[in-house]
Amino acid sequence: MVTPKGNEQPSLGLTPLSRVRLDELLQEMLVRVGEVVTSRERLRALLDAVVGIGTDLDLRSTLQRIVESACALAGARYGALGVIGADMQLSDFITHGIDPAAHARIGDLPHGRGVLGLLITDPHPVRMPDITKHPRSYGFPPNHPPMHSFLGVPVRTRDQIFGNLYLAEKQGADEFTEDDEEIMVALAAAAGVAIDNARLFALAQRRERWLSAAAEITGVLLGTVRRTEALRLIARRAREIAGAELVLVLLAGDDGSRYTIEVADGGDEMVGKVLAVDVEALRAEGAELGDVADWPAPVPSGPVLAAPLAGADLPQGVLIVAGVTGSGEDDAALLASFAGQAALALERARAQEEREQLVVLEDRERIARDLHDVVIQRLFATGMQLQGVAPQALRPEAAKRINAAVDDLDATIRDIRRSIFELRAPVGASLRTELRDAVEAATTALGFRPVLDVSGPVDSAVPDDVVPEVLAVLREALSNVARHARASTARVSVRAAGGEVVVQIEDDGVGTDPATARGGLVNMEERAADLGGSCAVSPAEGGGTVITWRVPIGA
After folding, report:
1. How far is residue 297 from each of residues 84, 247, 278, 387, measured CA to CA in Å?
2. Phi, psi of 90, rounded to the nearest 5 degrees
3. How far is the C-alpha of 287 from the C-alpha of 305, rounded, in Å?
4. Do the bridges between strand 150-157 and strand 317-322 make them parallel or antiparallel, or are there none, so unpaired?
5. Which PANTHER family does the annotation name (predicted)?
6. What letter would DSSP give residue 173?
7. C-alpha triplet 372, 374, 380: angle, nearest 5°
8. What's the pLDDT at 296?
9. Are 346 and 309 in contact (CB under 8 A)?
10. pTM of the model
């Protein structure tokens, strides 16, 4: 038996060559064990990252955690997640590794050109040792940190590409490895699930806010509805939920081509403006306010949502939400439902107004009936008694005073009849009111106020197409008196009876020659002829001129 001397190691029966081979095997085994340990640690880190990115359902913070986890797993100095918009360009860019000051110096975010656009046009992993040497390299803007090694992977949510995960500057190596790429592909898959969950949660919250606001509006509609107040509440809630700069409620005019701004939450100075709006163009995707209407003030740029106001017996209208931030994918449908609430508010307000008008009309009808059946009959009977007593009066002065009292009673009866017709006229604007306004408007030019006498059911009997002609003739006649007659008094009589309306204007001026009719009189004659009527100019008994304009108005 040979005993080893000094520090000699036992040979274990191996030759020197075998010992070298054994050492290599042991070293390789140690390397493989290290790789296994490293892979295990990276897998654990990947699992931790997957769990970490799904801990919060806020979309923005989820995206930020994905970028941070990717940089930590791949050993990247810089990372970013580019969100792809509807125009297939980067609509958002979440970064890691660049401080805010550097961001400010770099300026605008990238749009997805150059190497970043590779993953947009071809959504497959991209790995390269030097991004600056790629043929599609677009270069970096001023103040951008230098970057060489690059790794990019697409992030999918269901069957759609949500965005791309970009990593740059591998730390401790010249480029990213295949293992880095595999880890990033796995992380991107988990990130897609987390992003989808965050988006669904945000969508559910948004829908809840819309439904809550709709329930609030419904509660308001159950009570007394004031149209403007209800529409203001609807606009305010729509602006809050959509995160918009401006919400408008527009109602179409009679011709349907121009709209009046009824409510403007975020732009009160625009209320009451009348403008032309291309509603169909406004509802198209990507439309902006300035492109489809002659807006009276600067308007916010950005996405616009629009929904029609639809309802029975309603003027055409539209609800517009402009300058939307963080728009949800079903905001258009939710806004359409909200527009239905606005239409319901208009319907309810109109119904309540009609009910209130009906109450007023019923009360006025009762008063008119009492005046006709009671007051006028008593006055008429009193007049008849006075007329019967007058011949028996002993003194002429007494008979004269009795006859004067009878005349006063007749005038009173005429005034009451006129009041009855006014009571039975529609609530709001009426021909009687417009005639009174026209006479009042001519007072300044004439220097005196003409006497106005309206008799008969002019408000109900004169058709709508004749009303403008009557007013135009009255204004023209009073204008002629002011310019040419040099009169001191004038009397206007408008009578609806016998299937026609008669307008008569009499003044005590210098008179006129009917044979030399000027433009104004010719216009009045043409207006009468167009309606199957006539216009006559004659001298007044005591001097002056009488214009008699008459047109048929049916039975």
Report:
1. 33, 14, 17, 71
2. -70, 120
3. 9
4. unpaired
5. NITRATE/NITRITE SENSOR PROTEIN NARX-RELATED, OXYGEN SENSOR HISTIDINE KINASE RESPONSE REGULATOR DOST
6. S
7. 80
8. 61
9. yes
10. 0.48
- Percent of the chain past pLDDT 90, that is, above it, reads 6
Mean pLDDT computed over 302-325: 70
Q: Are 150 and 126 in contact (CB under 8 A)?
A: yes
Sheet of 90-96, strand order: 90-96, 76-84, 160-170, 150-157, 126-128
Structural tokens at position 462: 């004169």
- At 419 the pLDDT is 65
Answer whether 159's CB lies under 8 Å from 171's CB.
no
Lookup: tokens for 154: 């697409």
Give the Cβ contact number of residue 445 at 10 Å.
11
pLDDT tens-digit readout, 83-137: 887 667 777 788 888 888 877 777 776 766 777 777 777 888 888 888 888 877 7
- Burial of 397-435, coded b for 16+ CB within 10 Å and e otherwise, reads eeeeebeeebeebeeebeeebeebbbbbbeeeebbbebb
Asked if 52 and 69 count as a contact pair (C-beta separation under 8 A), the reply is yes
- In the numeric block, the tokens 């390397």 are attached to 31
Whether residue 549 is predicted with pLDDT greater than 90 in this model: the reply is: yes
Backbone angles phi, psi at 243, to 5 degrees: 65, 40
Q: 186-213, pLDDT tens digit by residue?
A: 888 888 888 888 778 877 877 787 778 7
Pair 359, 415: CB distance under 8 Å: no
Q: Which two tokens stand for residue 166?
A: 């970009």
Provide the pairing of β-strand 500-507 with 545-552: antiparallel
Residues 6+ apart with CB under 8 A from 258: 252, 274, 275, 276, 277
Nearest to 213 by CA among 318, 338, 45: 338
Structure confidence at residue 235 (pLDDT): 82
Q: Secondary structure of 488-501 in the HEC alphabet?
A: CCEEEEEEEECCEE
Torsion angles phi and psi, residue 166, rounded to 5 = -115, 135
Amino acid at 491: R
pLDDT tens for residues 28-80?
Answer: 766 666 555 555 666 666 666 666 676 677 778 888 888 888 888 888 899 88
CA distance 120 to 82: 10
